[in-house]
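Reopening closed ticket. The problem is back. First fold of the pair:
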Amino acid sequence: MDEEYDVIVLGTGLKECILSGLLSVDGVKVLHMDRNDYYGGESASLNLIQLWKRFHGNDQPPAHLGPSRDYNVDMIPKFMMANGTLVRTLIHTDVTKYLYFKAVDGSFVFNKGKVHKVPATDMEALRSPLMGLFEKRRARKFFIYVQDYVEDDPKTHEGMDLTRVTTRELIAKYGLDDNTVDFIGHALALHRDDRYLNEPAIDTVKRMKLYAESLARFQGGSPYIYPLYGLGELPQAFARLSAVYGGTYMLNKPECKVEFDEEGKACGVTSDGETAKCKKVVCDPSYLPNKVRKVGKVARAICIMSHLIPNTNDSPSVQVILPQKQLGRKSDMYLFCCSYSHNVAPKGKFIAFVTTEAETDRPEIELKPGIDLLGPVDEIFFDMYDRYEPVNEPSLDNCFISTSYDATTHFESTITDVLNLYTLITGKVVDLSVDLNAASAAEE
């Protein structure tokens, strides 16, 4: 313990593990500590006995649910865009060799009281029951514009500067109605609320293109992929990467108190009476509660079922987005379902989550629109957790704190936070076009 490190990382949540992996690859001397005796922190995957213990104390789960070890229930369930930044980070770091992925079967949106497949291309727009005949034609033209748009080729811009034109103005040009705008903004571009309508359209167009590229990558029923055995595999894979590049790991370390020098800069971490010195500390909000503020709350229901979610084309794995406007809410609701097809439950069992940014203290009532789409459930657990963001100035105190996980069931906002923190810590931007494995092979 009594050594000096460049960076000490506290907590083995996914964000912290990705950062320790990226920093170790850079040749940074990293010590990674966690007060828990398992990897994953808040983003761990639990077996059935662990799940029961967390929500019911020491109760034993009922036998009819099957073996505990067959369950891997994510505490922060999220799918990955097949061509998104997290996947490119996995390829860049060669962490893919520790993981197995499988495409997610379906991507759906709740609209006018029904669940519909999300149309992602001009041809799908023409077939979609989400729109009437004339609206389909207008939507098809908009999809073709987005598909053909190339940022550095003005010929594809149709005279519009999308860094200045708002999304609302771009959509108005195509005359799309509110329902169409709703599924485009929330289920394709994956915006979490309607603020995007008054922001530059370039962001929405890029997000729609990412959705279509991800859909094309595996040619499955959705643009998403998900690791076999659950997301708990991801932090461990990045921990292995860090260890390969010289990172040191210590689990089950109580307290983990950050030490500061006279100037208020982090200079070490004390645990069990021993202090490891460092130049910088990276951690989740729970390790430095006086340097974060509460920004919201997530409500979620964890459901174990014995059937597929109705009206989702018999998809064993699926995401359904319920846009805020459809529910009369301020933020979207998300439905995530996985099963034995991704090795997270025994055959015939399905794990479904309904999550949203909480607007009340009553998750049972607030989550009802999503739960009603599931049909009968065998078991249901309700939960709420606070979301925090840092309020410190890292250049003054050398503390780099991640934000809490949001209610979305996809990873795009999570990986943005990680790469921003990496840049704050190192002053560099991760070049995801470089394949580190190929680069190190070339050096040898």
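Second fold of the pair, where the issue appears:
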Amino acid sequence: MAGNGVFAEIIDGDVFKYYCEGEWKKSASGKSVAIINPTTRKIQYKVQACTQEEVNKVMEIAKAAQKSWAKTPLWKRAELLHKAAAILKEHKAPIAECLVKEIAKPAKDAVTEVVRSGDLISYTAEEGVRILGEGKFLVSDSFPGNERTKYCLTSKIPLGVILAIPPFNYPVNLAVSKIGPALITGNSLVLKPPTQGAVAALHMVHCFHLAGFPKGLISCITGKGSEIGDFLTMHPGVNCISFTGGDTGVAISKKAGMVPLQMELGGKDACIVLEDADLDLAAGNIVKGGFSYSGQRCTAVKVVLVMESVADTLVEKVKAKVAKLTVGPPEDNCDITPVVSESSANFIEGLVMDAKQKDATFCQPYKREGNLIWPLLLDNVRPDMRIAWEEPFGPVLPVIRINSVEEGIHHCNASNFGLQGCVFTKDINKAILISDAMETGTVQINSAPARGPDHFPFQGLKDSGIGSQGITNSINMMTKVKTTVINLPTPSYTMGKL
């Protein structure tokens, strides 16, 4: 159970503590932030409402701890990460329980997230040893006009203090995708988890605590974004920000100044279906991509652009699969579970009502109970409907019928988002040409969009983000190149005469 057993020390009464200096602490504010269970719509957990003074203390400690950690042998850093990964996977059940109750993630998917996170940490440790264990050696006479009088040695060194801000939908996995690269590269890490998902994140951090990382190296601070959000992201002690989320990321990027940024924001991932596509394959991936975790994924299929000649057949196949989706509480492993909050449900409903007023075809009746919205496929959507452009982050999927490939590419590229997209066709040449034309960070051919595997590059264009993620890219991003140049008194040539 959450907060019990090895996790007993992370809770005081009914309020979970925050983590600083290797200890679980109560905030001096004496206040807490409530976490609402999306299914029951009642308070499930409470976390500390930390103060700006406590943020200052965390940053001070993180800076000092990083100096010592940077001197820790690379193999030792990797060893501790492997240990944390094993502990995390060992305690997958209580962490998964938190995910079910905080963000209404289906039980089986919650367990998968925790196990996947352990695997990500282990892979990061191994990849970090490979990347950071190598340097570069350059000689000056490879550039015109130079003799061989300079030997250049380059290596990768840490940035300092990394601020990690994951989203509610993957509060464990997207936290460790930032924590692992930060730690293996010799940085310290300050985690600000989302409110919904904070308790799962606190349990995850305790696994790192149990692994024996140095005090102060990892901190986890909770609280209201309105009170500590800007204070954290604009703090002079932060040397890099890794953020996953929505519009907040745009605000952060404008305020961050010279701090390196790694940001994955929203998406309106388009699925283009051509006449020669395997429609059964396309339909299966559209339902999986559009409705898994109730569509609350940055890489969810969010608009289907299908050629008119096969649209009727595709829509019928998708409708048949949608009819088989189970709807209900996450504890029952239902396919469609409540969305994260009432405000999210209200936003989704607003998009649906706009489409209804503008005569979209409802392939199922619209049904909602509290935060639970039944899966809905909207056919004959037009560009003047909000759902054609806005990201619902819910189980509602629009279908736009197109008459040419160019029309589909135009709609995709007209979006302010550019995270991922997908193309269904049996013609690989055509698929590559469409992929090259789509203004998105990734294009999947004959499969739904997806962030993983976690070592693949993952990036967005336009309002979908800054920088690139994926384990290798994150490791490189959280370091800077250090160069040492040895100047020789006379030119030196290997095997040459003195």
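Update: turned out to be a display glitch only; the data is intact. The chain has 14 helices and 28 strands. The first helix runs from residue 52 to 69. Please close again.
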